[in-house]
Amino acid sequence: MFRRTIRASAAVAVVVLLLPFAAACGSQAQAGASSDASSVTLSVGATGWKTEEAVLRFAHLDDTPYDVKWSVFQGGDQQLQAIRAGALDLASSSEIPPVFAAADGHPNFKVVAVQRGATLNQEVVAAKGSKITDIAGLRGKRVGYVQNTTAHYFLYELLKQAGLKWSDIDATPLLPGDGLAALNGGGIDAFASYGTSIITAHQQGAVTIGSGKDILSGNFLWSARDSVLGSPAQRAAAADLIARITKAYAYVNDGRRNEFAQIVAKATHQPLAQAEKDLRDAQSQRPTEARTVGDDTIASQQKVADAFAELGALKEKVDVGSFWSRKLNTELEKAL
């Protein structure tokens, strides 16, 4: 049975709110000396809305033999901050947040699995009525972006493709909600973001001027606290949960997309027809499914980390292989 904990606020506030859970997570690590899953509670992060929890319930796969506490964040970067604070056991993110979370050389987590997913709704948008029609038109403009996320990365790559440098724009880091408000209020000329914030931006009349669809790898990472990997029971629970999400999406894709789209539409406050189209397009582009850690997945993140070093967002190059682990591979293969 799931225990549901919802938090949605700025990064620091989220971590502060969740810190009381850290002690509970630590006690679970001790209990994990037993392989009994019933002794486990996993604190798991989600971005945007309760997508993973919702799809598990829809597929009748939410009756886990362990407890799950879901916490919602505005971005994967906040989830990694919560892991660093000891407030989450599992974090889901793009390839980028773990790079910055590990940049100090003392991460308390490992990337343990990859979830393949769509790269749609990863866009640079201009406000309704804007004269900006493409990335080249951003020279000298005020551009908001969600720092240390996919939006940061694909904005940088799109600028390079258009023959522009990062210094050619007035770049402003903003959280998704703040970026939308700034775009609509005229505080910025364009906004690079993802997910529900892009869906909402389009509902408010924003137009796409650049997309990260073909820039991003489609690799979304599961990061686990080191204490999880040290506990047989927590490790087994983590593998089982990740596998269940893959099975849940397989259930959705087996002729039930329109049914699940009704849940998505209600949660994201968008028209049902749009939710159906977005879900169909996303699952057609790249069905959501987990895979184990491999050399290619590590190399993919290394490419991203090198781009941030080139951009100057990292003080020095980061060896991403130092915070990946194959310790979950065997359990995940069995669970899948």
TrEMBL record:
Species of origin: Streptomyces bluensis
Any idea what this protein is called? ABC transporter substrate-binding protein
Q: Which Gene3D superfamilies match?
A: Periplasmic binding protein-like II (3.40.190.10)
The protein's UniProt keywords, in alphabetical order, are: Signal
Boundaries of every Solute-binding protein family 3/N-terminal domain copy: 41-253
Q: Where do Basic and acidic residues bias regions lie?
A: 276-294
Q: Where is this region: Disordered?
A: 276-296
Family, per entry: Belongs to the bacterial solute-binding protein SsuA/TauA family.
Q: Which residues form the signal peptide?
A: 1-31
**Which Pfam families did the record assign?**
NMT1 (PF09084)
